[in-house]
Amino acid sequence: MPELPEVEALAQYLRERTVGRVVTRVEVAAISALKTFRPAPAAVRDGTVTGVQRHGKWLDLAVATPADGELHLVWHLARAGWLRWYDALPERPARPGKSPIALRVGFDDGAGFDLTEAGTRKRVAVHVVADPRDVPPIATLGVEPLSDAFTRERLAELLAARNQQVKGLLRDQGTIAGIGNAYSDEILLVARTSPFAPTRSYDAARTATLHDAIRSVLTEAVTTASGRPAAELKDAKRRGMRVHGRTGEPCPGWDGTPCGDTVHEVSFADSSLQYCPTCQTGGKPLADRRMSRLLR
User: Where is the composition biased (Basic residues) (predicted)?
Assistant: First the structure.
């Protein structure tokens, strides 16, 4: 799933290529992806792109339209969605059916993009709204972790609000916007903490360490992703992971010094997490989460 660094890079990529361009094509190929019906997607045709923003893991294409004023084409790529950019958009229409294409958008210079989704579970979400806050998941987003509002004090408040597993807090979009499964694994390695640590067990020192880890991991990932073509972002993300997706490989260490242990995994019904026992859990491997207790 694309997370904050990749979505921020996609926003930058689209901003450089679409602002000032006129939308000439909007074709919905997967009706399941369209979550609003008024205004219709066709309402953004003949409008001029005025900006591209990121809201958590959501992308927002702002379009000044002749008839409806400013509209926002907003989408979430979910777990298996992606954006495919074309310098010359295929002339053939995007047809409903077995194609992975969910939406096709074209501009007056002949360029454009497809929103695609692999697999059979279709979760890509596309909205056309007058205000991005009209999309409920955007309206309820938590604090942006790279914003000035995300201070150590703010993190301490979030940790203390209710007792839960720290990995769950990091992934909760209503608490902290933009972090998902992959980057929460990376943050918890750098913070040297168990993914199952209760949030109310964090004192000031551990909170500061976690805050620094969130900032450093995301800042590094945004820097790495910035300026890359959309087609390269997935591979760049995979290469940059220390523990996520690296079960059985040597742990590179929370500070870049190999610790001598290997990356372990805990599997769930439809996902998994990766961690290093030496760096994060005092050398104790975590049992399958369906049977284990919380490790502090």
Answer: 236-245
